Amino acid sequence: MKRIFFTTAMALAVLSGWSQNSYIVKTKNVKPAAKPSVAATVANEMPEETSTEPQNFVTKNFKYRSMCDWTDGMKFMVIPEKYDLIVNTFRDASTGKEVGNGKLRNKIMVYKNHTTASDGREHVNFVCQDDNRAYYFELPHGSFEDYCYSKLGVPTLAYLDDVDKARELLLGKTLITRQPIFFIDTQYEGDGVEQVKIAENTEVVVRAVGVGSRKFPVKIIVEDPKTGKEFFQNVVMSRTNNGMRDEELIMDNKKYVFLNSFSVLDGTDIVSEDYREYMGKTIFTKYATEMESRGDGKVRKVKVPRLMEFVVDAITPISGSKYVELTLTEAESRRIYKKEITFVNFEATGDPDVKKEDYFGYLFGLGEGKLRNSTPETRAAIRQGRVIHGMTEEEVELAMGEPDNVVAASNGRTDWIYQRTKKLLIVQFGKNGKVTGIKTR
Q1: Angle made by CA atoms 30, 21, 54, in degrees to the nearest 5
Q2: Is the dihedral of CA 384, 385, 388, 393 positive or negative?
């Protein structure tokens, strides 16, 4: 098996406090065996069972928090990578001097708003929960609002609210593996791991949840009850401060998105053996079809064009029917859609209770389809969460989500209004349904 070691000499010098940090969890085979497993300790502190809704698990429970919307008290942990041990992130607020990321490794930083220094530079402020000292990250360029809208975030910081919420909801729960590559720990005080292969659709139980990395903040340790083996995956939940562009999570890092690694069960197997092979698979629409779009607490019927790409999140049987409800995540925008379909082939069976256009094999193709018939500039803007001139209403919704308000203006113009922390973003559409103006107020 391939062995992967991320440990550096600098990192080893600052790891003596790991065993006292409940966010650092390890699989039970970790070395040396004489030391107690933090994973076992956390597993024994499981909270009362919390009801979860598998088909909307991530969307419902893990909300993306742009830096523009950070609030005092949000918690992060310093998890430097190799590069971060050379290039420092923080400065001591009392002296203005840089502080090595190795010294701050695994320390918890509590967000305390942002300020403008006397030299005009923008500071993102924190108080370290471990030493009660104030630190700040100085933005490399531009204003705070320009920086926060770019999704860059603060280097090294893993978002702990995602870890806490995952611990609350998942400890003791049964999950289904969706892909074959997982890991086991090989070092108790270090980052050594070994890659292992696990059969897809294996039922596992969550034994511990801790911090992973900045990119993939939630480390989920699971056990196969049949073999007793533990293994883990570091996954991204809300994407808050993970510093990755959307397209980076569609290619090589796709398996580190939670719903691409696991399916959630609530104690009953809602996904029958007949459908489980489709869970986590990428599909695309062969034909335009109507679906329900879910987001921001709203549900509405939308026309989905052909060649639109999705990941299958859940398949829920509809009682007394030959139909099931698909829960789908759109590949670009990560919006949640619902569609009632059937796996019964009308043409093969002649079953009068089903329609050909609702047959899964007729409507969907397996694999990656071509994203909408749009320009490269428009697709790039959608990935970055920006609006540009010439976008359609569908493209703006993919980039920004549903507007907070829609206003019919003069001369046939329509304004979509988005509420931001300190201003309004107004997207103006002309009579042709395309963006003609973008303003802030």
Answers
A1: 80
A2: positive
When mean pLDDT is compared over 53-67, 258-272, 346-360, 426-440, the highest value belongs to 426-440
Residue 240 · residue 211 · CB < 8 Å: no
CB 426 within 8 A of CB 439: yes
- 82/94 Cα distance (integer angstroms): 27
Q: Is the pTM of this model over 0.85?
A: no
CA proximity to 228, closest of 205, 199, 195: 205
Two structure tokens written together for 335: 């919006």
Instruction: State the virtual CA torsion across 259, 260, 261, 265 in degrees, nearest 10.
Output: 40
Over the stretch 91-143, which tens digit does the pLDDT of each residue have? 999 999 999 999 999 999 999 999 999 888 999 999 999 999 999 999 988 78
CB count in 10 Å sphere of residue 350:
8
Give pLDDT tens digits for 244-302.
Answer: 876 676 667 788 889 888 887 653 334 455 676 787 788 888 888 899 886 555 678 88
Q: Give bridge partners of residue 263 from the DSSP assignment.
A: 176
- Give the percent of the chain with pLDDT over 70: 79
Between CA 15 and CA 224 the distance in angstroms is 29
At 101, give phi and psi (nearest 5°): -65, -30
Give pLDDT tens digits for 355-372: 888 999 889 988 765 555
CA distance 52 to 203: 17
Return the H-helix or E-strand segment holding 385.
none
Name the nearest CA neighbour of 82 among 193, 214, 235.
Answer: 214
